[in-house]
Amino acid sequence: MKKVLAVTLGILTAIGGFVDIGDLVANAQSGARFGMRQAWVVVVGVIGICVFAEMAGRVAAVSGRPVFDLVRERLGPRIAMTNLVGSYLVTLLTLTAEIGGIALTVQLASGLPHVLWVPLAGFAVWVVLWRVKFELMEQLFGVLGLALVVFVIALIALDPPWGSFADQLTHPGPPSGENWSTWGYLAVSLFASALTPYEVFFFSSGGVEEKWTSDDLATERSNTAVGFPLGGLLGLAIMGCAAVVYEPAGIEVDQLSQTALPVAVSLGKVGLVVVMIGFFAATFGAALETGLSTGYSIAQYFGWRWGKLVRPREAARFHTVVLVSVLLGTAALLTTIDPVQITELSLLFSAVVLPLTYLPILVVANDRDYLGEHANGRVQNVLGVTFLILILIAAVAAIPLMILTGMGQS
Amino acid sequence: MTRNRPDPLRVEFHLLDRQIVDLDGRPVGKVDDVELTRDPDGTYRITALLVGQYVLAERIGGLVGRLLRTLARRRGGGAPEPLRITAEHVQRVGSDVRLSLRAELLDLPPSETWLRDTLIARIPGRAVPGDEVVRASALLGRPVYDAAGRRLGKVTDLITRPDEHGRERTVAVLVTPRRRGRLLGYEREGQHGPWLLARLAAFVHRGTREVPWHEVRWKP
Question: What pTM value is reported for the model?
Fold first, then answer.
């Protein structure tokens, strides 16, 4: 019974933990602009994160080495340093976006401008990181994030035109009047929202810290294999809601409140309250994960002691990095910069830096000295290489598409 | 470094940039460089692993290397010496490099201790009781009290026994009502003569007694 509970809790955590500010923004934007035409990007992205997380988790459990440790070991100090700088900045940008998301959610509830809530949100994130136990933190926000299931209910209540949804799914290209570059720009964002580097830093570092063994590996595998796709389903529901409400009118989504509006339209005030709980949990949970990930990446590159289970005074540099990152993110938001734009930027640059993190994991997952019988099999390698190619395409295309479309404006 | 190593061992692939962990698996640092010593016959043998940001910076080179080097230097004042772990302390080379000693034996880099003392240890909320490090001299000579707040005397010695992990842990203190000072050893069983000195020592240190650790209070 206890085991069933643990597995259920793990799956619930994975579902809630999958959705963050990137998914809330990218899915709604894509739905508003292209209906369900890009739904398959979400599906591909979810398979990608499952493949990546499974490999990283397996490597962490069998060899005890977290992701960034291996990045330096396999790429050498120089290229790994480039990767470190890139990954750190992207994770910092994501952290900034998540703190901004918390503030925007509180703004939605209180009516007061989000900048007022930014210092409080930043402080709250840091206090939870400093005081609250790893497991409680992960489970609390993961399970509360399940409130986002309200999007599925809202979508059904909106009685969407299923026929045209199906039509859009089979014709995934851009509709008339839209060009391929905007389509490509949003596709890259959507792909990156499912497949962000920090999720893997967090996942594998957590595995090392909790000293996973091969037994835990099976549990974790099922948690992510079930939890992430269900999380992706929430993303699709967000996309569907935006498709119903905004796409026919040609309204673009550039605010977080617009992501929530379809739920208010179909379910009224109660729906809106539930959405806000979901937004808060999703952004707060992700802020914690990205905050820790800034510390993980730097500490693992330099070989410092790191982790949430280590006493802070024995991992002073790690805790300093986390603290400074939260401060930097909070300070950036106080310049009244728009959190939604930060989110878009963070997604785009996530796509750019991902290959340098993905490649070492794919290589080490094949290293029999490290993994023995747990090394990649043929199926895992076919999937692994397919996604390596997809990730490379997204990385190469990201910046040209951003310039070409003026961040999706044209 | 004889048994638990890949065969053949490759310095660049198996050693450089691997994580070094101590006996208990705690991170010590990365292998930032490897020290080789040239023997008369012209071959090199691995003598030590070097750990330190400055060493790493020299390997990275370029602009980033120079920046890292400046950062490392500013704290240390001049080029800081790397942590040098001699080859005989390497127990196993695998997915990590495991040492045969505990991390406590190795010097922490100044950045870690500086951040710990000026920042992290000062933030409230995570102070763990018993976490502090003190010197024995800070405890010796201090007045101690019993649970009721009565003064027992001054501490003249700390008595330890191995705990379940084999670490010497305090079990009692020796207190004297009077003066502090070395006891010459006459309070122990087994040292008796010469008679005159023993009597004298017993007189000077009369009232000296052992108090179990859990009965000792450091404040009244």
Answer: 0.86
